[in-house]
Amino acid sequence: MLRHALAPGTGDPAGFVLGDCGTQRNLNDTGREQARAWKAFLAEHGIAEARLFSSQWCRCLETAQEMNMGPVTEWPALNSFFRNRGDGPQQTRETINLVNALGPGMPVVMVSHQVNLTALTGIFPASNEGVILALPLSENPDILARVAPGQ
Question: What secondary structure does DSSP assign to 93-147, as a single string?
Fold first, then answer.
């Protein structure tokens, strides 16, 4: 599970509309480069393809798409709850349940937001930082590693 690549700022601007990237905080050129770096980083660790799941926020979708590792599936449970903190516990449980319901297959990569990763893991990730979690997921998951390309 990783936090989207660099999208300067905090939260979203007034007038945010899901699905309208012009109203959102988006990746900059550095963020797009960071997202593309995941493909080589994961390949170095034996992962050439993955099942990609993403928040519906444009910065997360773009991070997943720039990874160029396969089709990206939108998962609303990965959406930010920065503005609606009360949604956090339910979305975290939903994320756990969705991951645990996946069948065997390629590795799973989820692209989400700082608040989502912190709620699940207790870690405050930097932009473009990921955590490798043991399966099955639980409310107190085993964190196997913190990772980011170039580090």
Answer: HHHHHHHHH--SSS-EEEEE-HHHHHHHHS--PPTT-EEEE-SS--SS--EEEEE
Cα(9)–Cα(60) distance, rounded to whole angstroms?
A: 14
Cβ atoms of 113 and 57 closer than 8 Å = yes
**pLDDT, tens digit, for every residue of 35-79?**
999 999 999 999 999 999 999 999 999 999 999 999 999 999 999
- pTM for this entry: 0.94
Q: What are the structural domains of the chain? A: 2-9+20-147 (3.40.50.1240)
66 and 111 Cβ atoms separated by less than 8 Å: no
Other Cβ atoms less than 10 A from the Cβ of 65: the count is 17
Is the pLDDT confidence value at 151 over 70? Answer: no
124 residue type, one letter: F
Return the sign of the alpha-carbon dihedral for residues 25, 127, 46, 94: negative
Q: Quick one: tokens of 36?
A: 């593309």
Q: What pLDDT is stored for residue 100 in this prediction?
A: 97
